Amino acid sequence: MITEREKYESLVMRVAEHKDKAAFKELFLYFAPRVKAHLVKLSMDPRLAEDLAQDVMVKVWRKAGQYNPAKARLSTWIFTIARNSYIDQVRKQKYPEVNADDHLGEMVADEKTEKPLEQKQTAARVNNAMKHLKPEQVEVIQLSFFEELSHSEIAERLQLPLGTVKSRIRLAFKTLRKELGEYE
Amino acid sequence: MKPHGLIGDEWLVSYAAGSLGEAHACVVAAHIDYHPALKSKLRDAEDIGGALLEVSEPDSLQSDSFDAVMAKITAFEEDMFGAVHMDTEQKDTVPPIVVGTDILPASSLPSSLSQYIADKDLNSLKWRRMGPGMSQVRLWDGPKGEKLWLLKARGGTEMPVHDHNGLEMTLVLQGGYQVGASHYTPGMIELADTDTKDHHPVIDEGEDCICLVVTEAPIKLHSFIGRLVQPFIGL
Ligand SMILES: [Zn+2]
Ligand SMILES: [Zn+2]
């Protein structure tokens, strides 16, 4: 019995290894409408969002060989591709990336790695965890992810001190991580 | 509170969300590169983005959308066929071992920095003098006045005392420095903002200290001489 998640991950593997168009079409049918919807939420014009969602899927095809299910959930990987493409297209900026390997981490001695959440939570779990946030915490998470506002822009929008915005985001994140951790 | 030299979680969330400008994203990504613990937290923060994407009510696509994507893929693969081959050949070559220099080789730099210095090591960059014992390389200027740059300071240098008109993020790449009771070494980040007064970093004795810095606005130098030369430094 394979999970929904394993099914989509195996589709990416088929694209990476065999350039399997049927597998890619299944991925496309699931993710492209969601990527487009996400871009529209970022207040992109629907026609431009359609075009960019297509470009995101082109990148999924091209980078399929780089996808590592042990390092990221598939929807997270596609989210980061969409995020970076959006920034490139709309802001005309690069989004410098974190190295996927721990090539520098080994230089920093005696650092305890917190137990990672592993990659087993589903979107439904994250969504459910969101329900444990206070409304004002949901607000700062949404302003970050859907309006891409910086801390000071959020402070300005909500007429709050910068320190309050930062601690609200920290608390929201802490709650989310805790909720997700409980499933382990 | 958060451990000394590590950035707060609110920055990981903002990085994950895509709400940082390029300069801040570069410094935050570089800092995360040094710390497996931050990398693991970042994965959690990006999972929030993935989940938000996945639970988006699917939008309808144009009827020919899949064909359009396949056409883009075909066009791309025809275009890139030659270039991709050159690419892989270059990546297979072993980077030369740097001999006789006390500066970091390119391979031990955060990857987010590499693209701004064309994968060079720090030694072969064009350092511009900016004051006694200090030099800089400008990497990127942003639309909101933010500047991404590298600072190199000789061991024992006292940085001029200053205040800030915006946020200043400093990530140590090599060497170390002291601010008051706090000591910063490679991988550590220091945030100083308008509330940080009389900022006076003192470079450790010994090797050059090299930092990746983002500033949002020109700093306020205390000394008259400093203010005189500031326009020429451009920071
Ligand atoms: Zn002062
Ligand atoms: Zn300063």
Layout of helices and strands, plus pairs?
The complex is a heterodimer of chains A (184) and B (235).
Chain A: H1 4-18, H2 21-41, H3 46-63, H4 74-91, H5 123-130, H6 135-145, H7 151-158, H8 162-181
Helix pairs in contact in A: 1-2, 2-3, 3-4, 5-8, 6-8, 7-8
Chain B: H1 9-17, H2 22-34, H3 36-54, H4 65-92, H5 111-114, E1 128-131, E2 134-141, E3 147-153, E4 162-163, E5 168-174, E6 177-179, E7 182-184, E8 189-192, E9 202-203, E10 209-215, E11 220-221, H6 224-233
Antiparallel strand pairs in B: 1-2, 2-3, 3-10, 4-11, 5-8, 5-10, 6-7, 6-9
Helix pairs in contact in B: 1-3
The structure holds zinc ion (2 copies).
One zinc ion binds next to loops of chain B.
Give an overview in words.
- The complex is a heterodimer of chains A (184) and B (235).
- With 184 residues, chain A is mostly helical.
- Chain A has helices at residues 4-18, 21-41, 46-63, 74-91, 123-130, 135-145, 151-158, 162-181.
- Helices cover 65% and strands 0% of the residues of chain A.
- The two termini of chain A are 20 Å apart.
- Chain B has 235 residues and is α+β, with helices and mostly antiparallel strands.
- Helix content of chain B is 35%, strand content 21%.
- Chain B has helices at residues 9-17, 22-34, 36-54, 65-92, 111-114, 224-233; strands at 128-131, 134-141, 147-153, 162-163, 168-174, 177-179, 182-184, 189-192, 202-203, 209-215, 220-221.
- In chain B, the strands form three sheets. A six-stranded antiparallel β-sheet of chain B has the order 1-2-3-10-5-8, covered by helices on one side. In chain B, strands 7-6-9 form a three-stranded antiparallel β-sheet, with no helix packed on it. Chain B has a two-stranded antiparallel ribbon with strand order 4-11.
- Chain B is elongated, with a radius of gyration of 21 Å.
- The chains are: A mainly alpha (184), B alpha+beta (235).
- The interface between A and B is large, with 85 and 65 residues.
